[in-house]
Amino acid sequence: MTPDRGLLVDLVRCPSPSGEEGPAVAYLVDWMREHGFAAHVDEAGNAVGVRGPADAPHTLMLLGHIDTVPGVIPVRVADGVLYGRGSVDAKGSLCAFAAAAAGASPSDGWRVIVAGAVEEEAPTSKGAHAIRERYRPDLCIIGEPSGADRITLGYKGHLLLDYTLTRPLAHTSRPEPSVAARGAAFWSAILDWAAAQNAGAGRSFDEVAPHLRAINTDSDGLRETVRLTVGFRLPPRLAPEDVVAAVTPLAEPDATLHAYSTARAYLGEKNNALVRGMLAAIRAGGGRPGFVLKGGTSDMNVVGAAWGCPIVAYGPGDSALDHTPDEHLPLDEYDAAIRTLRHLIAHLPDRGAG
Amino acid sequence: MQAECVECGAVIEVPEDVMQGEILPCADCGVELEVIALEPLALDLAPLEMEDWGE
What we know:
The structure holds two protein chains of two kinds. Chain A is of the alpha/beta class. Chain A has nine helices and 16 strands. Chain B is mainly beta. The model of chain B has no long low-confidence stretch (mean pLDDT 92). The N and C termini of chain B lie far apart (41 Å). Helices cover 0% and strands 45% of the residues of chain B. Classes of the chains: A alpha/beta, B mainly beta. The interface between A and B is medium-sized, with 36 and 16 residues.
């Protein structure tokens, strides 16, 4: 077991569902201190380590997350593959960041910050919000699984909408639709609205994708209530508030709507110093680079627009395994991602983000 | 500087200050080309944008 792999296996063995990241954060901070970082736990509970001069004029931010979704997957290594919760999403990426920064000297004029953010898997995104307010990097890589040869350029936006409608109970022989039927009609109207929105869209990233996450009815003997939770994955052209404004007229006037877990889509540029550096680094390792657009969200949605700097997401592993009980990561791909990141860190541009 | 589009063979004007990894469009066929080497200048098809689920 190489030291780089040892870091990952140890961190995956340290459970860290959102809100319970403390022991994993402490482990990573200790590891970074032992490997040449100035490291600390920040006010949000994030693990933060800095390599290079603290007063360097340029900053490369490597922003991963240290929390995982719930669910225990026994940690084991078999045939060069690490199994365990968080192996792909996204301790593989975070540990690749730390190992790469520990093993490479930043280019002149640069410091590299490795951040293991808390609560990325929670609606709060608490860790990324704290990082967003404290730093203004020149370049940023978000730690999420893209595959070692691929660079993620953007993430769709997100919205959850709760719909509640309560009406007096009536005998079912009456012709008026039940609240259940009215709730179903609201969902059907959303599907029709989305289909109209998506006419002519050339790819999934540009489509709005509604999902019916829950529909339930109940009654107290006098009134009946229907509750729907609808999720939306949003293209860059639609902000969450645009969607709320568009679908509100589709609901019964006395229905209540509650919007939450909102995130605007973010799509970064691909002709900038960061992407050029990543392309060169992947090719230097013998890979053939690819770009990818993701249907989910990440901390890129939190920091991308605020920082306005070149930003991508990168990390080893297959994001199709995110949140699944079969989460695993091939360790040779983890090693390849570390080599790519080391090449990037050692070849950062002379004049900042350019 | 000039280079040839690897897709359609059209002549592409390349800026003198072009950088490795820079992506240039071909005005004739519309593909995007990546500068994969500077000395000598070499272009290849730029990575395609794929789509994926998850984070």
